């Protein structure tokens, strides 16, 4: 699912809770949510069965191919779509690996400044996660201004 981000990567929220920055155009929304340990049921993962049908509270998504499942205007199939803007879904964030919250913004910046030695020994995967987290925090700060 190739997609170009013009302004910024969309923020995905679940019932208002920011859960992830959608910054990998090769992923589906379902894959991104699963990485964050969001509980979402799926079967076909191709837009055929409707098992992953999810309500959109705000925002919009795009599909690489139109899904076969009939959808209301406020529904999406995360298995075969990507956010087209910041999006808020009616899924629960309970149990998800949430890193974006007002409480963690300041502490995360503080931790980054105090522990430079720990960053030197991070793996490429951890480094990518830290960059994603930093981007998310910067976007949150921009939104608050
Ligand atoms: S998992 Fe079948 S439509 Fe999404």
From TrEMBL:
<keyword id="KW-0830">Ubiquinone</keyword>
<dbReference type="InterPro" id="IPR012675">
    <property type="entry name" value="Beta-grasp_dom_sf"/>
</dbReference>
<dbReference type="InterPro" id="IPR036010">
    <property type="entry name" value="2Fe-2S_ferredoxin-like_sf"/>
</dbReference>
<feature type="domain" description="2Fe-2S ferredoxin-type">
    <location>
        <begin position="14"/>
        <end position="83"/>
    </location>
</feature>
<dbReference type="Pfam" id="PF00111">
    <property type="entry name" value="Fer2"/>
</dbReference>
<dbReference type="GO" id="GO:0051536">
    <property type="term" value="F:iron-sulfur cluster binding"/>
</dbReference>
<dbReference type="InterPro" id="IPR001041">
    <property type="entry name" value="2Fe-2S_ferredoxin-type"/>
</dbReference>
<protein>
    <recommendedName>
        <fullName>2Fe-2S ferredoxin-type domain-containing protein</fullName>
    </recommendedName>
</protein>
């Amino acid at each position: 699912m190739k997609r170009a981000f013009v302004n910024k990567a969309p923020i995905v929220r679940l019932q208002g809770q920011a859960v992830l920055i959608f910054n990998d155009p090769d992923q589906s929304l379902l894959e991104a949510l699963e990485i964050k340990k969001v509980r979402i049921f799926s079967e076909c993962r191709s837009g055929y069965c409707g098992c992953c049908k999810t309500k959109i509270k705000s925002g919009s998504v795009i599909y690489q191919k139109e899904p076969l499942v009939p959808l209301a205007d406020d529904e999406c199939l995360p298995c075969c779509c990507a956010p087209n803007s910041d999006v808020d879904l009616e899924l629960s964030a309970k149990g998800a690996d949430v890193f974006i919250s007002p409480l963690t913004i300041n502490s995360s910046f503080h931790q980054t400044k105090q522990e430079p030695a720990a960053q030197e020994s991070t793996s490429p995967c951890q480094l990518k996660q830290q960059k994603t987290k930093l981007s998310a925090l910067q976007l949150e700060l921009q939104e608050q201004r």
